[in-house]
Amino acid sequence: MTKFWRAPLAAMLAMLAAAPAGTAPPPAPLATEIQVDPARTIAALPPIWRFFGADEPNYATRPDGDHLLAELGALRPGQIYFRAHNLLTSGDGTPDFKWGSTNALTMRGGKPVYDWHIVDGILDRYRARGIHPYLEIGFMPAALTSAPAGVPYRRPWHPGNSYAGITAGWSYPPTKYEQWAELIYQWTRHNVARYGRAEVERWYFEVWNEPNLDFYWSGDVEQFLRLHDTAIAAVRRALPTARVGGPDVAGAGGAFMDRFLHHVTQDTNYANGARGTPTDFLSFHAKGQPVLVDGHVRMGIADQLRTADQGFAKIAAIPALAAKPIVIGENDPEGCAACPGPANAYRNGPLYASYTAASYARLWELARRRGVTLDGALSWSFTFVGQPWFAGYRQLASNGVDLAVLNVFRLFARLGPRQIAASSDRAVPLDTLLQAGVRAAPDVGVLATRTATGGSAILLWHYHDDDVPGPEAAIRLRVAGRHGLARARLWRVDATHANSFGAWQAMGSPARPDRAQIERLKAASRLRPEALPMVDGTATLRLPRQGVALIEIGA
């Protein structure tokens, strides 16, 4: 028996000896065979995970928000993007749930007054942390809204309120499209002057959010197309080389998306009378649907992946657009980051982490199957400043302490640029997952890459839709073409590794952790490498349910 297995076996025997009489032994582990062949290249693996976003743009300027931006920017320096709502919304810049503002436009004596200092502060934070904007043009400034008399510009929203309660004056078309166009033109000119042409050419420009939902857009589809055409023409007037697209619809977009795709390829442009609208990328949103079943959370990974597949199919069916890059502008287990609740109780711990690993791996696979260019899959998750510890929001950090899911993005960042052949005899087939999710046997999956230095980075996950206990996976990993002894490096995210929420629970879930406890939480959140012995390309490890691991092997 190798030294590597003595400690786990001793611990297991001690647990059995300490168990009360009559206690059932732990379930037998799931024997799992994983094969990797570094000599067989499958395809390029674009870093689709490098996009993030939030409803509340002003949190980016607060210390916790700025700290998290720095963590995101460090994932892949110079390649991270951030999208936020409310960059043109009127107000004083105070963040709130699903809200934010910059007061970019007011009117004085019937003439526009532009004030960029709040929005500059937000974008400056992105750039200071090496992050580029995925620039959402919205929402409608109070000075331009066509909302009927009596409709408030803003309705405060809080967790527990009806989601439709966010709709207010900011969601309406402009009274004068030429003033809307001038606002966008002046903003783009300002951004080019402030950040430089080469930088702004790297941004993604899109108009509004989920205009196919009436609580985000109070106009009709033709009014949105006019809004879109007018804004895109204004961006291109200021910067002819700007990367423009959209429409960031909810879901695959249904008839609304069909109308948009036809319009940008065939119709007369509302802004300039040309045929079609410049379109450098396409965007839609894909969400899962967790529910509460018999007192536990059941995730809806099939819903999210089916939506992504439907969106890919719509775009692939339009010859003029089929080769365009696609960004899933919000890509999440469900729809409302600011809405906690029993069905969203997956968020703080390793279930969110394992779901993320399993779902992103299948997005790469779906894109290849559909023959589309998937450029990004944006996680709509950031942080909520000034809220209780581990309050249940969909976020990457709580009060400056990283959550387990952020560590999965750190593992993604360690993957190489080329996918290589890998298989697991306990991976759920893609078609089964699309139809039914992971409701029977768990999904013990693998995605392997060749790194830039010629080594291998192998991502493993052990996922199930149901948040209930289950046996761990006893994995035998075989990497072809390797001989002799080697020491690989292993990174883990699971209930007892890189999981601050578990450490907080073990403390008794203190409402106000003291300084020493906060330092312990930060320590518990960190990824820590372990040595993984390999003999002739073979290694063994245990991966608990809801676990994610990355194995790095040198060239």
From TrEMBL:
Question: Does the keyword Ribosomal protein belong to this entry?
Answer: no
* Keyword terms: Glycosidase, Hydrolase, Signal
Q: Which Gene3D superfamilies match?
A: Glycosidases, Glycosyl hydrolase domain, family 39
Family matches, as PROSITE patterns: GLYCOSYL_HYDROL_F39
Q: Which Pfam families match?
A: Glyco_hydro_39 (PF01229)
Q: Which residue stretches, if any, does this entry annotate as coiled coil?
A: none
Q: Which residues form the signal peptide?
A: 1-23
Q: Quote the InterPro entries the UniProt record gives.
A: GH (IPR017853), GH39_as (IPR049165), GH39_cat (IPR049166), Glyco_hydro_39 (IPR000514), Glycosyl_Hydrolase_39 (IPR051923)
Stretches assigned to the Glycosyl hydrolases family 39 N-terminal catalytic domain: 33-527
Which family does the entry's similarity section mention?
Belongs to the glycosyl hydrolase 39 family.
Q: Which PANTHER family match?
A: ALPHA-L-IDURONIDASE
What's the name of the protein?
A: Beta-xylosidase
Q: What is the lineage of its organism?
A: Bacteria, Pseudomonadati, Pseudomonadota, Alphaproteobacteria, Sphingomonadales
